[in-house]
Amino acid sequence: MLKITAVYGSPRRNGNTSRLLARAVEGARSAGAQVSEFRLRDLKMSPCLEIYGCKKEGRCVIADDFHKVAEAILESDGLMLSSPIFFYAVSAHTKIFMDRCQSLWVKKYWIEKAPPGKSEFRRKGMFISVGATKGRKLFDGAVLSVRYLMDVFDMELSATLLYRGLDLEDDLDRQPEPLAEAFAAGAAFAESLRGS
Ligand SMILES: Cc1cc2nc3c(=O)[nH]c(=O)nc-3n(C[C@H](O)[C@H](O)[C@H](O)COP(=O)(O)O)c2cc1C
Known about the structure:
With 196 residues, the protein is an alpha/beta fold. The chain has seven helices and five strands.
């Protein structure tokens, strides 16, 4: 069975990115994927403390909910991640999760000595993001961060759904097209995993 992990990075339970990711998850399930969902806002997760306890075995030594999310992703064929844009970057919840994945970076590049920049990705990731404004570079920082996050999971960032001009929690009620797009993109993402 095709396995996908969905990680919700917004502090809002039913905000724009959460609603879009929920629809993408429905789309992926409609295409036959088994999807595990994690809402970072509901988990206990310390920021990276930069103590490099991970240098020994590539496993973060902080005992908290990080491990269940990372392990689910490691067992999946694909990752669907969502985050709002906060100050041209990902949300704090998302960044905390990302920084904890430094343990996997250490495993891949320090312990297993993978050659940098030469990854052959075995798996795929999708990123969903929303910002209130219309800036040309609105998603540049977040997309770059997410691309390198996915690298440590041996995932290629293969699909993005990025929407400008959505701000209030109910904005998608007035402008519902992205929800339909997210469903279709979720189904297409699951199909693309089947083919890889
Ligand atoms: C702390 C904070 C920082 C924000 N920074 C930006 C920003 O840099 N650019 C932007 O376009 N919108 C910014 N926004 C607006 C959010 O991106 C926008 O409201 C988005 O729809 C929230 O998505 P969500 O409902 O999934 O959390 C910011 C909002 C907050 C609360």
